[in-house]
Each structure stands twice: as structure tokens, then as C-alpha cells.
């Protein structure tokens, strides 16, 4: 991929990361206010899914950053 594409992908994934973190924080703040077990479990399930997505997003970010480094170092 040309370098510009890599920087575009990097920015895109940084944006995904920011949005996922915001969604996680939102669910965590809601979690403490739930009165039923069912509602708590639903939010915990959503949190687990979001945390999985965040982990994959960060893995992709690390991969993109390595690719950019390789390109900048002329490999």
C-alpha cells in the first residue's frame, strides 16, 4: 500500500479506537445505574464485545504503525 493509504488507515483506526473507548466508558457508566440483573448482564455482554473490538483495533493499529515504520526506513 502506498504511504498515503497507510496514513489514512492509521487515522481511520485511531478514530475507531477513540469511538470504541467512548462507547466503553458510556456502557461502564450505565452499568452502575442498572437495577435489574438482566440489564446489567446485557451491558456486560456489550462491554465484552466492545473490549474485543478495541483489542482487535489496537492490534491493527500496531500493524499499520509497523508498516509505516518499514516504509519510512526504506524496507
From TrEMBL:
It comes from Serratia marcescens. It comes from the Bacteria. Residues 40-74 form a coiled coil. Keywords: Coiled coil. This is Prephenate dehydrogenase. The lineage of its organism: Bacteria, Pseudomonadati, Pseudomonadota, Gammaproteobacteria, Enterobacterales. The keyword Coiled coil applies.
Amino acid at each position: 500500500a502506498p504511504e498515503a493509504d497507510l496514513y489514512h488507515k492509521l487515522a481511520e483506526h485511531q478514530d475507531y479506537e477513540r469511538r470504541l473507548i467512548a462507547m466503553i466508558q458510556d456502557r461502564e457508566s450505565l452499568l452502575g445505574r442498572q437495577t435489574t440483573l438482566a440489564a446489567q448482564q446485557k451491558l456486560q455482554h456489550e462491554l465484552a464485545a466492545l473490549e474485543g473490538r478495541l483489542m482487535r483495533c489496537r492490534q491493527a493499529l500496531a500493524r499499520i504503525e509497523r508498516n509505516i515504520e518499514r516504509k519510512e526506513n526504506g524496507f
